[in-house]
Batch of 2 targets.
Target 1
Amino acid sequence: MVERLQARGVQVVAAANPLRSVAYDAAQVRALVDAVEGDVVLVGHSYGGMVISKAAAGAGNVVALVYVAAFVPEAGDSAASLSGKFPGSTLAETLRPVPLGDGGQDLYVAQELYGEQFAADVPEEVTRVMAATQRPITGAALYEAAEGTQAWAELPSFFLVAGADRNIPADAQRFMAERAGSEVVGIEGASHAVFASRPDETADLILRAAGV
């Protein structure tokens, strides 16, 4: 996907999302956005949608948002509340907690369940590596409510709906996309890792958002 975007002349920067809390993560991404010269299209996958919705608020150089099987919150919504708004998510039963010194928890998807849960349409040899190299999110981040103005209320947004997502049900994705007034592209049978299984379609939507 990155190669396709670069081939079309798009400068790509993969922000290192800390996955610690919505407010903290958004501040880190916003710092990166502020350091970029020129227009920015922010792309968020999964929990990353929570982050870009906050990070882009009031950022003068962000021209569009792209949500890839992602959360699009209103103030008061959390990732956990949105994923449970419609039936179908089986993520919770696959998560394995690791206690942290501050009393919190890091959450990992059990490696033996990762492929089926997260990336059922991605080759097994790839999902084994994805499972082994996954980065954990804190439990607190999943339950942290969005606060303040969300950027999608002010910016054009685009949403890639993964039709067979087992983390964020497709009905929840369509609900959030409609609420945000997003331009929607749906891919039937696509897993939560739609960016990996359908990189061309993902890149095409980002290019459309960028006007390329």
Target 2
Amino acid sequence: MKTYLALALATLCLAGCFGEENGDLKDWMRDSSEGLRGKVEPLPEVKPYQPFTYDAFSLPDPFRPSKMEIAKGKGGGTGLRPNPDRPKEVLENYDLEKLRMVGTLQQGKLIQALVRAPDGNLYRVKLGSYMGQNFGMVTAISETEVKLKEIVEDSGGDWVERETSLSLDDAEQKK
């Protein structure tokens, strides 16, 4: 008896599987799609290519150092100019802000400053040495600072002198 009952139950379950699958979903889709028409937007109009004409030959070249052109006599109102024929010193490759005075050396009356460059090397600096990227010449050396006279270009293109200094590094003063 139990076998017949189980067989009857299995037959009923299988009979439910043979009906129309997802009939309500198919009816809804058919009802919803009535009256719909597919519409494809037209392609945008293609504009013809117009080449760009570079016309900035009268502007200054950003890759040519204007300071050196003025120094060679191509402008500037004052007689003050850096010397472009002078060989550059090693410390002129660095910004003055990146150089650190770490001490001094004295032999008799000659006093020299020790300056650390960003590459980690120490350099001796004496009166008349050049350092920084603004044509800075050392004018005085004391135990706590190096005074420089720089030649910089003002907004009008003229060269002017500016005094600045490089002080002994705070960490070195405490030693």
